[in-house]
């Protein structure tokens, strides 16, 4: 009984440590005062001011555009790469997987500077395109690592049975393999989307003038004070992500119960 209480207290402490800052941010997004040290009353003016702030809206546009585009591209490439790696022989798979782990374990600043030097070397002007390429590059390994476990759980006889029944390899891939590994693909896509929105270091070195995501914009604001509109924007983003996760979990549980 005592041990169970300790475990519950420990779990509560961990979740409190993780989510207390977010709850404080949400509360102060409704604070009438610009100061974060005092409560000036309830207001929605920062939410109204958010949509009229051209700097934040521009940063939000680039952030979402890069995150959506890079996650889709990285998911397609990463899924195809994971299927190819899964079909390799053991030694080849070991070499490729070691190369896949390098971008994950490598420091972001090394990756960012390396990509910046590469873009300058090939004379590719830093901007939206270089930022997109950079995000696709560091997202692909995470998609591969998300899809491979689902491929390992896959029954190889399903693909062979589909071929024996007259399906072409491409048809068997789309109708048999992809649906079976779809949870891993969705997980990889969501992870890529989250990492893209959250990235600062690599974005800082691979973007150009006029193209700035939220992390870079907030960093530039930190020197002279972060606008209260950022609290409102963060609250909206948190609620949106939470809603998406709840919808995905609900759909997944409903499918599992149906099976």
How are the SSEs ordered, and which strands pair?
Elements: H1 2-28, H2 45-50, H3 54-86, H4 90-105, H5 108-121, H6 128-153, H7 156-164, H8 169-198, H9 201-206, H10 214-222, H11 229-258
- H and E string: HHHHHHHHHHH
Main sheet characteristics: none
Kindly, what is the distance between the CA atoms of the first and last residues, rounded to a whole number of angstroms? Answer: 37 Å
Strand content: under 5%
Instruction: Please give the domain count.
Output: 2
CATH superfamily of the largest domain: MetI-like
Label the structural class: mainly alpha
**Poorly predicted runs:** none
How confident overall, as mean pLDDT? Answer: 86
Beta strands, count: 0
Write the CATH architecture name of the largest domain. Answer: Orthogonal Bundle
What percent of the residues sit in helical stretches (DSSP H or I)? over 70%
Shape: globular
CATH class of the largest domain: Mainly Alpha
């Amino acid at each position: 009984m005592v041990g169970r209480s300790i475990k519950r207290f420990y779990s509560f402490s961990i979740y409190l440590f993780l989510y207390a800052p977010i709850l404080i941010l949400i509360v102060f997004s409704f604070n009438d005062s610009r100061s974060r040290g005092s409560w000036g009353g309830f207001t929605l003016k920062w939410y109204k001011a958010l949509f009229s702030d051209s700097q934040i809206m521009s940063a939000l546009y680039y952030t979402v555009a890069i995150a959506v585009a890079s996650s889709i591209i990285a998911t397609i490439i990463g899924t195809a790469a994971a299927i190819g790696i899964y079909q390799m022989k053991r030694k080849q798979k070991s070499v490729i997987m070691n190369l896949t782990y390098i971008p994950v374990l490598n420091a972001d600043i090394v990756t960012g500077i390396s990509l910046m030097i590469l873009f300058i070397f090939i004379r590719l002007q830093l901007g939206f395109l270089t930022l997109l390429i950079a995000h696709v590059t560091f997202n692909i390994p995470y998609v591969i690592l998300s899809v491979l476990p689902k491929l390992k759980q896959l029954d190889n006889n399903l693909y062979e049975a589909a071929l024996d029944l007259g399906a072409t390899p491409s048809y068997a891939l789309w109708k048999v393999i992809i649906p079976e590994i779809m949870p891993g693909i969705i997980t990889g896509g969501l992870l890529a989307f989250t990492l893209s929105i959250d990235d600062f270091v690599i974005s800082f070195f691979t973007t150009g003038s006029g193209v700035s995501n939220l992390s870079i914009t907030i960093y530039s604001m930190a020197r002279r004070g972060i606008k209260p509109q950022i609290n409102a924007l963060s609250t909206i983003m948190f609620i949106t992500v939470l809603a998406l996760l709840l919808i995905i979990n609900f759909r997944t549980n409903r499918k599992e119960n149906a099976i």
